[in-house]
Amino acid sequence: MFTGIVEEQGILQCCEKTGLRISAGHILQGVTEKDSIAVDGICLTVTEVGAGWFCVDTMPETIRRTRLASLQPGDRLNLERSLLANGRMGGHMVQGHIEACTSVLETKEDGIGLDVIIALPPHLRPYVIPKCFVALNGVSLTVVDVWHDRFSISLIPYTREHTNLGQAIKGMLLNVETDIVGRYVARFFEATYIHRLQQ
Hints:
Elements: E1 8-16, E2 19-23, E3 36-39, E4 42-50, E5 53-57, H1 60-65, E6 76-81, E7 100-110, E8 113-119, E9 133-136, E10 139-146, E11 150-155, H2 157-162, E12 173-178, H3 180-198
Antiparallel strand pairs: 1-2, 1-6, 2-5, 3-4, 3-6, 4-5, 7-8, 7-12, 8-11, 9-10, 9-12, 10-11
């Protein structure tokens, strides 16, 4: 379990079909093999740790569902260690289970904020509503507005400086995880509705 509060930006050193090697700093404190780290919002298991770097394995399903295939050595990755039982829930409940990879459609400066409009895949449309939570590249964000096939978020200066969302431009790919609570509520009402139709 994660909160969507990025602790550090790591640097991708090596990207292969079966795994990643990432350079990092303070998030490695206390991290050992078998621990979970959210890498751009993807919950991955640490398989090896060295001085200033760690490795994770990546399954074919992970490659298919996420933006990993588009990354190059030197790219910045948002990193977050799993939540401690006595830790603060600064963002929202993030599982690290990416549901889709989508793209930035437009960016626009708005005062101190950066408005970002993002394509909304059809299968996620029931779960994205104005003012709900969404995790993009592992960053906990509030949805500003929603249209049929897109939605918007607004990035504060801190988020732009401390996460790779500060590099958002048209065409940039993003890992998306919708709010698990919203998904459960939607599934409950869907199942209830279908059950009543069958009676």
